[in-house]
Amino acid sequence: MRETPKILSAVLAICLLFPAIPALGGRHDQSASPDTLRLLCIGNSFSKDAVEQNLHEIALADGHILIIGNMYIGGCYLEKHWMLAERDSAAYSFRKIGADGVLVNHHDTSISQALADEPWDVVTFQQSSGLSGLPESYEPWLTNLVKYARKRIPRRCRIMLMQTWAYASNATNQFYGNYDSSQQKMFDAICKTYGDAARKHRLGLIPCGTAVQNSRHTFNRENVTRDGYHMHKWFGRYLVACTFYEALYKQSVVGNGYRPPHLGEERTDLAQRCAHAACEHPGTVTQIDFDNPSDTSNGRWKPVQVNTDPSKVPAYTLPDALTMQDGHKVTTPEQWYSERRPELLELFETQMYGKAPGRLEDMEWEIAEEGPALDGKALRRQVRIFFTKNKYVTVLIYIPEGADGPVPAFMGMNFEGNATVSPDTSILYPEPEHAKAYGIYKEQPRGNRASRWPLEDIIGRGYGLVTFHTSDIDPDFDDGFGNGVTPLIYRKGQVYPEPDQWGTLSAWAWGMSRVLDYLETDPDVDAARVAAIGHSRLGKTALLAAARDTRFAMAISNDSGCGGAALSRRRYGETLRSITGTFPHWFCGNFFKYIDNEDSLPFDQHEFLALIAPRPLYVASAENDSWADPVGERLSFQGAQAVYDFLGLDRSLTRYHIREGAHGITLEDWKHYLDFADDHLLKH
Ligand code: GTR
């Protein structure tokens, strides 16, 4: 123990025996009060997630002083804890939060030293997550550890088990194989092992794993971990701390007044309720009933109401695209381009999607692979664009063979990896280390999304295709803005985007611009004739990329819906409340103030579409896609057309279609886009 030289150990022993004498070199917290609770966790990074943030503050909000010790070794499992205890090895970081809430890290501490450090009230053990559902990994080590601890702690001290949690469904963690990569299997196994161990040793259980699982059965879904297994920095950590609190104090955490950082009211409330339900029903998932007022809610959480009845669309007034914020009318096209357009773009950037940086100074690229494709009809080029040494995007490009000069191209991101775009066996899968950084990712079979990318048709008609995977820019789940490119813009000490800094859609759109930077150097693609295209969430992104970056020659929105082409004020299908609930990472912080408050938005999406002018704009819907509000998409498109008209632009620059069928991008959609591109991107 670094802070406790051996020479003082005798004095320390005396101080521990007579705690009224200030502990010389010992750490028994003197500022504690008589009702202070002292918690010691013998754990690893999972206990770090659970007790090192929020927990002290949650207790304090209810008037309790809580001293917390966390004996930390990354990935440590019961067998190893026992081995280290037996050898009295000072191998731990003893991370202690005092009565004042300040964490001090004491390196080189042994379990016996930590046990003697305070008159603990609660000591917890946990298994490492990968082993946690394997019963054979518990004994005899847990028995030994419990005996070892009992000899060294006050008689009244409770020993509890901190239940760990199952991984995200597509987690890349190597230990997931122990559960056939099945979240349900892992959760069931964890419930059984911890339940059995708690009964066997008569220990209390802190049902963190159940709380996590509860949250996955709400609108929050997989937005609970930051990398597939560790807790999301804000939501997940708060959730497990709530669980700890309620299990320790046997006092409901619902309504606790502490507000964790970077979580809205909804998710704060959600975490409290998931934790509470877990403590009430530790061995099973509770489907939290947000509609039921007699549920343990304090009534803050509003259920998501989805309207798909056209007669129930509320009355609304759209902002006039041609009136400035200060009430002045836009009277000339020049005024639109020089004043109104920048004003609107700034509003969309700061109030909805979040600002992104420009091009990075030290970006580099390299050709990772190149070769013939489509039976010689195309050239395939795979390019890595490096943002930093470890952060890069792999871009898959197909270029028609035998073209007469650089070709026009479609650029669109893909949802599940480049290899899903075509059965072409030369498409690179991400390097395992790179994929690991996605956190949540499941390698998909080659070509399983090929129907969305009619490569033969695109190439056959003389266009290139440029695509890359969303995860290379920012994995599509809320991890608290730690992964992906988001941290690239953090200033020193910053851990979370400012309310007007980019969310994931904005980061993705930024990625499209960076790929366009590369294309400007590619001899085979004409970067001045690149259409930004995207389906659904990637349609929102394509629109944003083209709105922001006028180098894109065209924008195509396929079923982009809420946050894309559809009007927000109609509140039909997906609303601001539902989209920000399920995808809290997509937008910037400022956008949340418009939830249930759409009429106060300083814009609507017709003005977003109008930002594409004077370039060609295509909006498409599908009849059965009520979630994306096809009517709202069409009305918004018409609102944008009015701006095109005002600007004196030809009607041929804007096109809309609605096809039969469901949400999706089909060959039929693509045929329309190719025709539209023929009109505007081909040199006649
Ligand atoms: C839905 C989401 C939509 C849309 C869609 C998609 O779950 O609510 O806004 O983006 O996903 O991207 O397929």
The total domain count is: 2
Please state the CA-atom Rg, rounded to the nearest Å: 28 Å
CATH class label of the largest domain: Alpha Beta
Beta-strand residue fraction: 15-25%
Rounded average pLDDT = 93
N-to-C CA distance: 78 Å
Uncertain stretches: 1-26, 292-300
The set of bound ligands, ions and cofactors reads: beta-D-galactopyranuronic acid
CATH architectural name of the largest domain: 3-Layer(aba) Sandwich
Oligomer: single chain
CATH topology call of the largest domain = Rossmann fold
Number of helical runs?
A: 20
Helix content: 25-40%
Main sheet record: 9 strands, mixed
* CATH homology superfamily name of the largest domain: Alpha/Beta hydrolase fold, catalytic domain
Overall outline: elongated
The secondary-structure class comes to alpha/beta
What's the β-strand tally? Answer: 16
Could you walk me through the main structural features you see in this protein, from its secondary elements to its overall organization?
The protein is α/β, with parallel strands linked by helices and 684 residues long. The protein has two domains: 32-301, 3-Layer(aba) Sandwich (Rossmann fold), CATH 3.40.50; 347-680, Rossmann fold (3-Layer(aba) Sandwich), CATH 3.40.50.1820. The chain is built from 20 helices and 16 strands. The chain has helices at 9-17, 45-51, 55-61, 78-86, 111-117, 141-150, 183-201, 208-216, 235-249, 265-280, 333-353, 432-438, 455-460, 470-473, 504-519, 537-548, 576-582, 605-610, 630-646, 667-680; strands at 37-43, 66-72, 92-97, 103-109, 122-125, 158-162, 204-206, 364-373, 378-386, 392-400, 407-414, 464-469, 525-535, 554-558, 617-622, 654-659. The strands form two sheets. A nine-stranded mixed β-sheet has the order 8-9-10-12-11-13-14-15-16, sandwiched between helices. The protein has a seven-stranded mixed β-sheet with strand order 4-3-2-1-5-6-7, sandwiched between helices. Helix 8 (208-216) packs across helix 9. The longest helix has 21 residues, at 333-353. The radius of gyration is 28 Å and the shape is elongated. The N and C termini lie far apart (78 Å). The model is unreliable at 1-26 and 292-300 (pLDDT under 50).
